[in-house]
User: Fold this.
Amino acid sequence: MDKHFLQPLFNPASIVVFAGGLDPDTLEPGLARTLADQLRGCGYTGELRFVDIRMSGTLADLARSRAELAVIALPTVEEMDNALEVAGRIRCRAALVVSSGLNAQDATRLHATAQRHQLHLLGPNCNGFQRPHHHLNASVIGALAKPGPLGLLSQSGALTASTLDWAQRSGVGFSAVVSLGPNTALDLADALDFLAADPHTHSIVIYMEGIRNARRFMSALRAAASAKPVIVLKAGRKPAGNEAALTHSGAIVGSDDVFDAALRRAGAVRVRTFSQLFSAVRCLASRYQPSGRHLAVITNGGGPGVLAADWANELRLQLGKLDHATATALAPRLSPQASLKDLIDLSEDATPEHFTAAIEAASATRGIDGILVIYSPKLGSDPTRVAQALVQTQLSVSKPLFTCWMGDSTVNEARAVLNAASIPTFRTPEAGVDAFSNIANHHENQLLLQQTPPPLAHDLAKPDVEGARLLIESVLAERRNVLTELESKALLAAFHIPVTKTILARSAHEAMMIATQLGYPAALKIDSPDIAHKSDVQGVALNLVNATQVRDTYNDMVKRVAQLRPDAHINGATVQNMSAQRRGRELYIGLVTDELFGPVITFGAGGTMIELIGDRSMEMPPLNQFLARGLVQRARVAATLGEWRGAPPIDMAALEHVLLRVSEMVCELPQLREMDINPIILDESGALAVDARIVVQPMPAHGQHYGHLAILPYPSHFEQEWPMRGGGIYTVRPVRPDDASMLQALVKGLSSESRYFRFASSMPELPSRMLARFTLIDYDREMALVAVHRERKLGADGEFIDTERIIGVSRYVTNPDLRTCEFSLLVADEFAGQGLGSRLMAAITEFARNKGLAQIEGLVLAHNSNMLKLMRHLGFQIKHFDEDPDFKLAVKVL
Assistant:
């Protein structure tokens, strides 16, 4: 509805420049002169004025220099601060400080001045930004880029300049280029929010080295990736191992793995190298996006084609093949030496016409999602003619088309032809395959974001959260961080995760008595808070079949462990009976806590060789059934969970159930630091946690509910029942992903007038993408409350049937300024006039107030008299909306 709050920064109508003088032509060579030349020399049509902060005169003189954006390029922090002070007093709305080398203390001083005057500040320690569509180059990173659809955010000035230099030669254009350095006030999430809403930006490329606020970054990234392709290159990858870890999970998962999981959850695609970033840029500039992972390879040389096929297999791509009918029709149009079995090998005799025919055939084949054309120079051939043929053919191709012209000087002219036509071209087959893989991964991640997971197969019983918290607090009160096996299993049991019966024996006699009661065969495990891995000190004994064996094993184990670890306090040994799941698979489910992104749930193959196997997949909480299933499928051990070596498939629902329970634990218990359930044995009868180890720490001091999570989970604590005027009750609660079908039913049941009042459209139902957008929400930046009415009807068999339906929805979405929000309201026609709308609006307004927002506002059609009446009744001000007289603006200060 409103313009983005960063419009004055990135789309200024007027600019005032503080560069050390009134005449830019008299500036000394250097950063300020370069910036002044770029601002004046690119055709910027807004008002541009240079001001000297040392000039004589009054504040009224300065006031005549009022502008939306202040650009500052001065040598000292004192002068920068003075310029910001002047910019604030002449009511600039944004400021850019181009500088380098300022320390954190100096940067904080500038931030404080900008904040005092409510200036949106980009800098210090940044190289500026470019807006090619607006002919604005407020940077020192090179010539103004060619206008195009790509937005580039970079935390490295050198890399930004290199990317622009490459793009100029490759014909790639940008909608925005923003250089973000260390200690800038405007962070990556703010700039990402702007590009997500920018109409000139169709795709976003990010180079990043670090972030400040994981939840803010994840929220902005998810919002951007749900609307536009986002490619990320991150520097600073760390080794996976962590020597300080107290669990197996902590030892095999590193911060870079967690970053991968975060990007996947947000719907973005990660590249690993600078060259892959260029590949991704080329692909995002192409016209089409793929709908699958099948890549057809068309080549005039077998070797390069085989290299492409091998690399495609490494990246989990499938080789796209022509169907029999298409291949039969194509063969007469090619050389007799051509092969169409796997690769489309046109042979060394290939002509431009042969390439054209093969591309047209691949484009028409349903089982092919993208096309890579590889050309190897041959004696007597003309690579430029082949490139020109591709340029003509690509106009009728409906699938992503990539090219690889191998060689150097003989193909330079051909590459120039392809670049001019915006056809991505690469020097090696592997680079071309990489490029297709990147956008295929983007397609998969977009499907993940658009999924509307089904409701759980059964309602999960409520866990004993308070009991679990008491257990953890008692451990911390003893100044311990590692739970014993008994305590760990008690914590799992509080969340209804099946565990083996385990009893602590403090003597050999007790161990015999307990084993006899539990039944044989039995297992003994040393119990010590100081021993992380029992098997490392021979502290595990399995398949003990009688009391004598239990007694002797207990005595030997305690003596051996005491000798190997004299520093460890030994409580005794736990006794449990052996699992009866003889054909079960040993798996592990774990938890690690990343310093930036918080807790991450891990899954893979379990057992004593877990570090050596290194099988791990991970997902950020909260999980739902769809995400839990994906977590399992990404692990290598997933191949053994079906019918395997004569064993029947495991109970997959039981495994998903445990993962959902672990997700509950992670969300409700911020004290959890690390956790291993290893092994957890799965077979066709269900799941059983055989061993567990949990590490805790005192409660984080963030003071917010779910403040330890990067992604806010479903706020189940906000559920309440309200009475209806004519009798009965309805429940008001936050929307859930599985509400999609009920929300669609609500929209379908509306009258045409009601649909038009809500959506300003006569659409009979919500499109699938919009339906997913309305139900799969980011609770951190928006909220939707649904009113659910339960109806009980008598069935034909005489039994009562309970049904649920959504009868109303109120919603707010936080604006990018993070201070205001926009609301919407919808009530089923037959429930209008019963006070439901008032209560839903009052509830969503209170939610926004508790979130710390300052104002709630929304557009209402001018002839929607009932809605306008309701808004006035709730204390909203009704204002004219200048941009469209058909609407009124309802505003309320919170």
Q: What stands out?
A: Residues 402 and 721 are 57 Å apart (CA to CA). The chain has five domains: 7-282, 286-450, 504-577, 585-696, 720-893. The radius of gyration is 32 Å. Confidence is low (pLDDT under 50) at residues 239-245, 452-458.
